[in-house]
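[SOLVED] Need 3D model of a two-part complex

Original post:
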Amino acid sequence: MATTSIAVTETPLVLTLLRRADDALVLGHRLSEWTGHAPTLEEELALPNIALDLIGQARALYQYAGELSGHDEDQLAYLRDAAAYRNCLLVEQPNGDFARTIARQMLYTAFIDPFWRAATASTDATIAAIAGKAEKETAYHLRHAGEWLVRLGDGTEESHRRAQDAVDWLWPYTGELFESDAAEQQMIAAGVLPDPATLRDAWDRTMEALLTRATLHRPSDGWAQTGGRRGVHSEHLGTLLAEMQILQRTYPGARW
Amino acid sequence: MVDRLAAAREAAASVPDPELPAVTIAELGILRDVALRVDGRVEVTITPTYSGCPAMTMITLDIARAMDAAGFPDAVVRTVLTPAWTSEWLTPAAHRKLAEAGIAPPRRGKPVCPRCASEATETISDFGATACKALHRCLVCREPFEAFKCH
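Solution:
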């Protein structure tokens, strides 16, 4: 017996919350895939710890989106298909090698860290509270990813090559981070969340400084992949969700 | 009424942290408030150290059990996110008990070795066995140790 997907009424606030929550859940799930496979014991501790922070942030956001839309956090995570997920394409990209995981983490965290810091000033008290927790955690994640990118880029010939390949491969997915649409603009105008576009300069500066330290070359900004925020995903999200959702889809309402 | 509230406070405050049993949730700053609601039920307010702290469910259950044992079977446990928890809320007792348990308490700068009190220590890993700890090594006695992170 399979469980039917839920249909979520996406008011501008619910949609905006789901975009942030889905980013955190999908990236957290990706990092959790490293458990038992990380290259060193320290990373075996680091990656699941970061995943845990992200999934904790996702839960808080889903709980709030759920209060507003009449669903609970588990339904929002387990009973929506890929087309109803609102995460950006960057976070759903497969782990690849360690360099690609680190590059993905760095590119995303350099965006979300200043995003949460700005969101602590939200006119919405719940979002300000979630952001207040998240920004302390993402600052730590940023340091972790940054140190690794420098170590890989400025490391051996092979680690340098892999780090450069990773940055080049993922760069076209970064443009989407700074997008918003009419619904999100309503929330931005109301001071509920910051405008992602205003964080582009800070992101550029962070990445520029880091890539220089890592002796990596900054890819040029060209055509950017887009679609995730409105549910048009790469093929990878479907397989991720299949694994993440199979238990609730197969045994509806199963509890520990 | 005052005695009842005091008894409830004491019961909640004495709940140990499931991952750091040497210290209580009050000493860690996780317990924010114990109050009597207008309907007469006790309300215990807690806050997570980290967003994804997996101990929160256990702490909620442990508080409910402690309140039940203290004669408050209908106590309510509420979680708040604001103000965001900080390691600065750890009490002096928490600092002392953590050090006695071999975990360096939070400190700006390098943590002090809980075994030999040396300040010559280095970081092994920014992440540890729980979200609130990192791994370090003492350069004098050479022993590795956990330290509570400044957060």
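Edit: Chain B has two domains: 2-85, 102-148.
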